[in-house]
Structure formats: structure tokens, C-alpha cells
Amino acid sequence: MFVTVLAAWLIGSQQPKRRMIGFVCFSLSNxxxxxWGLYAQAWALIVLQVCLFLLNLRGFKKNSEDxxx
Length: 69
Description:
The protein is an all-alpha fold and about 70 residues long. About 90% of the residues lie in helices and about 0% in strands.
């Protein structure tokens, strides 16, 4: 949960580099939640984390484009 909160804080940054780190932290938190979801057999949590990971990829891509402009 700490990684998720840290990621949310970094995503809110005005600095593109910090936002990129936030996206990486969010991806790490998705992996950690999936591991816990497998242990707990929480299938809906796993599906949610996969969907959130895809949204993180979208944000990562948009942030990368913003850094290039």
C-alpha cells in the first residue's frame, strides 16, 4: 500500500521526471497487489490491477510525449 501512496504523490508532481517515477511505482504496486491477490485468491483484485496497469501504460506514454514537446 505504501508504494501505491508514494506513486500517487509522485504522479501529482509538476515535474515530468517525478511523474515518470510515479508511473514506475504504480506498475510496481500493481505487481505487488497481484501477488497478494494470488495468495488471497482475490480474482477481482487481480483483474482490477491488470486494468489499472493498462491505464498506467497509457499515462506513461502520454507523459513521455509531453517530455518530448
